[in-house]
Specification:
The chain is an alpha+beta fold. 31% of the residues lie in helices and 23% in strands. The chain has an 8-stranded mixed beta sheet with strand order 3-2-1-8-4-5-6-7, with helices on one face.
Length: 198
């Protein structure tokens, strides 16, 4: 905690990178020590979600991601799936997409680039950092967007399944077939690590 307090001193933009690196170091201890059984890896280009237990691959699912194309999510409405490391922070078993698994987007990296690129204010950056430090879901109402997660399709019609099998169709989330999100749910708990790669 003392290290995090020292990092918070200095409010100049030039110190922002050091501040973010310090925060990442602050988070590294508890995250690494957490006793989570599984890790989720998402490969956007290959359209795959992989469930791992250490180095062992337990399950692979075909997915759809954001229809905004390649690249990292930068702001609300760009329809891109973010790239980075996230944690599961909630479950909604009665979503319009069948089951919705919420991720802690935006994370520190997203907030850093959002502030650097003037997408969010310093106050919003500080609110995101404070929420993440406290283990809460970060603010979802900034220009970075929110409500990013892993979910099902909802009502499965032949047209929806055909689209899901062939196109990236989401607003930035990761989508699986309903039976697959139910199967995946058994591997997930609050805090499960989700790594999203291009």
């Amino acid at each position: 905690m003392a290290n995090a307090t020292v990092c918070l001193r200095g409010s100049h933009r030039a110190h922002l990178t050091a501040f973010v690196l310090c925060l990442l170091g602050f988070f590294a201890g508890p995250v690494v020590a957490a006793p989570y059984h599984y890790e989720i890896e998402i490969d956007k280009s290959a359209r795959l979600l992989i469930v791992r237990a250490g180095e062992q691959i337990l399950k692979t699912f075909h997915i759809s991601v954001g229809r905004g194309g390649l690249g990292d999510k930068a702001k609300r409405g760009d329809k891109r799936t973010p790239i980075g490391t996230y944690r599961v922070v909630g479950f909604n078993e009665r979503s319009r997409f069948d089951t919705f698994v919420r991720l802690n987007y935006p994370n520190i990296k997203d907030a850093y680039y959002g502030l650097r690129n003037a997408v969010i204010s310093r106050t919003e950056f500080d609110a995101i950092v404070a929420a993440l430090r406290a283990g809460r879901t970060p603010p979802q109402n900034t220009a970075l967007g929110g409500a990013i997660g892993i979910h099902g399709i909802g009502e499965e019609t032949p047209d929806k399944i055909r689209i899901h099998d062939n196109l990236d169709w989401t607003e930035g989330c990761i989508a699986l077939r309903n039976r697959e999100i139910h199967e995946l749910r058994h591997f997930l708990e609050l805090g499960t690590r989700v790594v999203i790669r291009e």
